[in-house]
TrEMBL record:
Gene3D superfamilies: Hotdog Thioesterase (3.10.129.10). Residues 18-115 form the MaoC-like domain. It comes from Zestomonas insulae. This is MaoC family dehydratase. Pfam families: MaoC_dehydratas.
Amino acid sequence: MPQITNVPYDSLEIGQTASYSKTVEERDIQLFAALSGDHNPVHLDAEYAAGTPFKERIAHGMFSGALISAAVASTLPGPGTIYIGQTMSFTRPVKFGDTLTVRLEILEKLPKFRVKIATRVFNQNDELVVDGAAEILAPRSLQTVTTAELPPITIG
């Protein structure tokens, strides 16, 4: 199983960056709809979505938000990070098959182990799809953790 090492508060530097990528697949959107309860037909029904300004199904906006959370938890600062808050502006639709890259940048170190991080998501064409910032509580000490193996998940 893979191991992940965090970056503790004292080692974080303004301007430090990290990224995390994932391609949006049908299965992801089905699982996200099932988990969240968001069954908006613009995400799940091609015929309905064809009549929207997008002309095709799009991913849930908060799916991109979940990828931001994954990036913060697994890359910068990594394991032991606690979310305090998040702002997000959705600037472009995310389509099935898009490869999303979350780009994190340390913006500010605040008192009591708090850190402000730029959280931007880009598609494979380097177009900004989500612009935002997070405030997190950074881990205080260096940790390396083994990631848990998830059980197989089936749909239907």
